[in-house]
Amino acid sequence: MYHPYHPPADPQLVRELTQTQQELRTHVKLLPLPYEPEFIAGCDSSFPTPETILSVFVLLRFPSLEVVEKVWNVGPVEVPYVPGFLSFREAPNVLRAYEKLQQKPDIIMVDGHGIAHPRRMGIAAHIGVMLDKPAFGVAKQKLTGTFQEPASTKGSISPLTDKSGELLGEVIRSKDKVLPLFVSPGHRCDQATATRLTLACLRGYKLPEPTRLADHWAEEFKKELR
What we know:
Belongs to the endonuclease V family. The record marks 81 as: Interaction with target DNA. This protein has helices at residues 11-25, 86-99, 123-131, 191-200, 209-225, and strands spanning 39-49, 52-61, 67-76, 107-111, 135-139, 157-161, 167-172, 181-187. By secondary structure, it is α+β, with helices and mostly antiparallel strands. Strand 2 and strand 3 (67-76) form a beta hairpin. Helix 2 (86-99) crosses helix 3 (123-131). It is globular and about 45 Å long.
């Protein structure tokens, strides 16, 4: 995968971001969702230019997955690129997009990681804590941990664990013979809830509908910026 060149991160900035992540981590709660959601939101961010970020929320009724609302916000990138700290680039704009939702979701499915992160603070955990809302991550690539490849059939699952055996997430085959997804809880959600809702939101594509539609509308909204 191609990664554009970025200058080395400022050590002082890395220390500050690490300290903030460690503080945020103390607020993470991994709990079963106490009720069946009526609304689930998909969240995705992209960078139309190196200086701008576009964040999208698509709100769906659950379990029908009927689209109720879609909102977006574009803003300046306020934090330089530092591997492992991408949530600081995304979260401020994500929160501004969230405020535009007239109907707030019961849970948020984020395109990215929850606790399956070297410091257990991926973007789903970050915005879950910031909003104090149930959230979990559905990512297309592994960030940390080890796993055995799940069977090639849809619905096959294997655990994603760290070196000590701690469960970081689950690796889910969302469609026959496609690369798996990495699903992890973020905040006010547990692994069982994150996995169950991911599987419940599959409609024949690799990505579950909330994040698939958020990604789709991010591309559509980008056209309005050109």
